[in-house]
Amino acid sequence: MSLPPKAFVNAGAASKTNLLFFTKGEPTKKIWYYDLSDFNITKKQPLTVEHFEDFFKLLDPSTHELSESERSWCVSVEDIQAKNYDLKAVNQNRKSDEDLRTPEELLAIIESQAEEIGGALNVLRRKGI
C-alpha cells in the first residue's frame, strides 16, 4: 500500500511510505498494490480510517481475494522477479489528468469557440445590448 508522502510527517518521516502485507505459510503468487499516494495529508487534514474504506472493501480477509480498482492492481510474482524484485508501485489503473490533445487540436477548439463567441456577440450587438 502506498501512503501519501506526508502520512508520517509528525513522526519525522515526510517521505513516501509503503506498507507490505504477507500471508504466513503461503508462497507469494501475486503482489496486490493499493495506492493512496494522491491524498493531500496535512496537520489539519490527517490520514484517517475513512481514507481506507475502499481498501477494506477490496480486500476479503476470509478468502484473501484481492479486487482491482482505480487505486489497486495486481502484479504476478513472475513479473516482480523479471524486474529484479523491484517492488516500485506504478499504478497503471489510475485515470490520467494529463491533457493528451495535440496543439493543433487545442487550436481548433479555440478557433471554433472564438467563432461561436463572435456570433453571439454580433447577435447581442444587433439587439442593442
Distance between the termini: 59 Å
Strand order of the largest sheet: 1-2
Counted by DSSP, the helix tally is 3
Low-pLDDT regions: none
Shape: elongated
Question: How much beta, percentage-wise?
Answer: 5-15%
Helix and strand pattern: EEEHEEEHH
Structural class: alpha+beta
Q: Please, what is the average pLDDT?
A: 80
Mind summarizing the main beta sheet?
Answer: 2 strands, antiparallel
> What is the count of distinct domains?
2
- Give the beta-strand count: 6
Indicate the percent of residues in helices: 25-40%
Describe the structure.
- With 129 residues, the chain is an alpha+beta fold.
- The protein contains three helices and six strands.
- It has helices at 53-58, 77-82, 103-126, and strands spanning 2-3, 17-18, 30-34, 59-60, 65-66, 72-76.
- The strands form three sheets. It has a two-stranded antiparallel ribbon. A two-stranded antiparallel sheet has the order 3-6. A two-stranded antiparallel ribbon has the order 4-5.
- A hairpin with a 4-residue loop joins strand 4 and strand 5 (65-66).
- It is elongated, with a radius of gyration of 24 Å.
- 6% of the residues are buried.
In terms of topology, how is this protein built?
Layout: E1 2-3, E2 17-18, E3 30-34, H1 53-58, E4 59-60, E5 65-66, E6 72-76, H2 77-82, H3 103-126
Antiparallel strand pairs: 1-2, 3-6, 4-5
